[in-house]
Amino acid sequence: MRVSSLFQAATVRSKLSPITRRRLRVFGHNRRAVVSLWLFGVLFALSLAAELISNDKPLVMQYQGDWYIPVAIDYPETTFGGFLPTTTDYHDPFVKSQIDAHGWAIWPPVPFDYQTLDRDVGGPVPSPPSARHWLGTDDQGRDVFARVVYGFRLSVAFALALTTGSLVIGVGVGALQGYYGGKIDLIGQRFIEIWSGLPVLFLLIILASLVEPNIWWLLGIMLLFTWLGLVDIVRAEFLRARNLDYVRAARAMGLPSRLIMWRHVLPNAMVATLTFIPFLFTGAITTLTALDFLGFGLPPGSPSLGELVAQGKNNLQAPWLGITAFVTLSVMLSLLVFIGEGLRDAFDPRINAPASTSVRVEKDAP
Amino acid sequence: MSDVPVFELHDFSIRFADYRAVETLDLKVHRGETVAIVGESGSGKSVSVLGAMGLLPPGAEVGGERRFEGRDLNSLSKRAWNALRGGRIGFVFQEPMTSLNPLHTVGRQLQETLRLHQGLRGREAKRRSRELLDRVRLPRVNDMLGARPDQLSGGQRQRVMIAIAIANAPALLIADEPTTALDVTVQREILGLLDTLRREEGMGLLLISHDLNLVKSHADRVVVMKSGSVIETARTSALFTAPRTAYSRELIAAVPDGHPPPVVDEAPILLEIDRLGVQFPRPKPLLRRRPLDFVALEPLSISLRQGETLGVVGESGSGKSTLAFALLRLVRAHGRITFDGERLDRLNGRAFRQRRRQFQIVFQDPFGSLSPRMSVADIVSEGLRFHQPGLSNAQIDAHVGEALAEVGLPAHCGDRYPHEFSGGQRQRIAIARAVILKPRLLVLDEPTSALDRTVQKQLVQLLRELQARHRISYLFISHDLAVVRAMSHRLIVLKDGAVVETGTSETVFDAPRSAYTRCLIEAAGI
Questions:
Q1: CATH assignment of the domain containing B38
Q2: How many domains does chain A have?
Q3: pLDDT at residue A355, rounded to an integer
Q4: Is the pLDDT of residue B158 over 90?
Q5: How many structural domains comprise chain B?
Q6: Would you call B355 and A254 a contact, using CB atoms and an 8 Å cutoff?
Q7: What is the ipTM of this complex?
Q8: Are B112 and B139 in contact, with CB atoms under 8 Å apart?
Q9: Closest residue in chain B to residue A251, using alpha carbons only
Q10: I need a labelling partner for B53 at 20 to 30 A (CA). Which of A31, A135, B154, B305 fits?
């Protein structure tokens, strides 16, 4: 249990409230959740550095005694003895020979970007996995591994942005409704009932035909609806908590409403909210994937997992496409579900906190 | 009295993992006898009975001998247990609301017991249920059978519980704090009822209570427990006339006594309330006229001088907490509130919030009134940080230490969290949170009701010291007359939202004018 002892060491030193400490301890003792969290964290951190892992430009190179960093700076082809003043295509045989002749270049492990069309596949596309393309290529000759790395990053970033946005709006609206109650609550609830009746998927599809949907459009439209799920739980917590004695005491002390909400009521609501987050997160990923699969999502060419699923479906003779998409999605979603499970248990007051000295505790406490 | 006791425990013990909850308990209950187990919270009185009846969760180790009507309980099968519990042994618990199923009618819950243990069905079961409700002196028996628990009052619910407990003519009735959740006048009736039933049915009655003085007139013998072991077992009369141990003496003497510090003659009037009332609109039924508002508090007028304590007495639902909330403007009210010559009801928003530090409140429940997420220092200093944002951290720490010292807590408590403290200590923290703002009026809403008698006494002492030192005025709300008498200079008695009687503490206690007040005083046994 090296991982959980790390958690404990961190919790003993810091000045956390006993409730937080207990939760961290429960979470730390759920081995599957901790491992999932680490795995997911490492995968996401790696995917953040996708440009250094798979790119169609060298990371660093020396040409005629000068240093170049193509991964960060665009150099025109003329720099390397070409004829066109456009961005250099480092896969071009002429450029390659020039670099080999006048210097050297360090390439990332996978020398393809998510949209690089490999013209030297040497066979029909989609081409099967090989030393050149670890997971094969898709039906346009693009490297599947590169697309998965970039696609993973995009999915997670999208889900992160959507979850954060929903959290801010949902908690805000729920807090106002629950704390003030009365007319504000009544009007808010009726509005939400009407609003949640709108068909999101159709709206997205209709919109896809009106505008060129980019990631910001998708984010914006989905944000209009995903916060609704949070309002109910936050509102219920606020309705309950505003009559707690310590909230009353804070009012009697003369604290203004915003401080009371922030300091005394919100922490109560955050319990329900935090356990909800993993589901928002997986929901956001699946929705994005589904839209891409249907072709109403991200613009063509974007590294998207949904598009990979669609390709797998259209190219059953190339099973590496479908299998890669399946494995990627299921690993990602399973990790998130495991983390979510650990979070839920950590916030469940009925689950006994393992004593800090005990080595291993059964997960199913009475 | 027969030779074989109905219920007997010998060298009985209960352990949870590495913690000993009960040790070497010896107990005998004979037919027609009432034995009381008395102890403060955490003394192991309830646990020992639950353990003896096999009602503890797995993980509790039960040791020693236990017999019921001569049968060894240790070797009983699960089936035999089920026949015994609810059959030969009846239970009455503290909280009548949660012991009854809210979704089933009273009749159905009674008939369930009759069916399970006696096989009674249909008309026969109904006849017997009516008879039982009659036995526990419930009015309008036919209506009662069809009523759901939420339609009954606390006392009526407890009577239903008793009816269920005696349905199968048990040889032993176990009553675990049967009256703690009830008003004083109702408490007395329920205890009287239990007494009568015991005599009529010839049952053994095992009464568990935290209040020694409550069982005084009802128990034949008393077992005093403290932290899991028996301190003293004696006949009731012997215990009260000549207690053998210091702890028993302490328990007997644990009625708050003494008087509040006298008010200075020229003390100015601090608070004046003129026709303050609270009413809530009732929902309007469809197609009918809106019913009259529900009056939670009839308009009343009060004045309070500096350093004076006004006791507010009443049973649950009498509007005493509503008065406190209306005064602090935590609920909407109408009427005039003049505090230190300033009309409070006219102020609003920021201006009023700034005045709030002058009048603070301490709540009943020491567990709910402190945020579990904040350290004690944060809790105590919160109001100060808001009202005096200019203070440095060192100054605030000094103020917090001072406030904690005032309520008799060491300064290092500040780094700890509420769950590490006992009920009495938490209540001290709540008082520290109030007094750090140097209030001139402190509203105490049942501050001692959730505490053990001995702790109550200490708290009353503390409050009086604070009053003498800082000349704080108190509005002291309680249903417990013994505490009110020890705290207040003047009293008002509330019933159903209206004032029944007012006067100085002595006159109200010595010569109560209204029948209701007399009834309350009598019930409190003082």
A1: 3.40.50.300
A2: 1
A3: 47
A4: no
A5: 2
A6: yes
A7: 0.75
A8: no
A9: B330
A10: B154
